[in-house]
Amino acid sequence: MISVRREFENMSVKEVEEKLKEELASRGYKAVLELTPSDIVKDKLREDMPIYRILYICNPKDFYNMTKVDYDIGSFAPCPVLIYEKDGKAYISLSVCEEVVDILKEPFEKVKEAIMAV
């Protein structure tokens, strides 16, 4: 697994997410689906946990081109980016399975650049 993770001590999860979306947009990417598993845990299990968000990041042209290489790429793309709070700090995390690194290399690098620019 190839991963990138950033820690933010002076920004909230909301601030980190807003900044990441701006950086992604400047690179032609956007969140096409957003989930908040921490809300699902609260609703279904009645357990509190710090905010945990998953943004599925996509550039439609890149996705289309990746399907030409491997039509099953949809198991890994759009790229899931985690934004969460742990121990009072905000984090962004992105991981890519080594088996698909060659196919996802360019989108991974662009999303990584956006994460590093936050």
Structure description:
- It contains 4 helices and 5 strands; from the N terminus they run βαβαβαββα.
- β4 (79-86) and β5 form a beta hairpin.
- With 118 residues, it is of the alpha+beta class.
- Strands 1-5-4-3-2 form a 5-stranded antiparallel β-sheet.
- It is 42% helix and 31% strand.
- It has helices spanning 13-25, 37-45, 60-69, 101-117, and strands at residues 2-8, 30-35, 52-58, 79-86, 89-96.
- The protein has one domain: TT1751-like domain (TATA-Binding Protein, 2-Layer Sandwich).
List the topology elements.
Elements (H helix, E strand, L loop, with lengths): L1 E7 L4 H13 L4 E6 L1 H9 L6 E7 L1 H10 L9 E8 L2 E8 L4 H17 L1
Antiparallel strand pairs: 1-5, 2-3, 3-4, 4-5
Report a brief summary of the structure.
With 118 residues, this protein is an alpha+beta fold.
- At the third CATH level, what is the topology name? TATA-Binding Protein
Tally of helical segments? 4
Domain count: the total is 1
Strand content: 25-35%
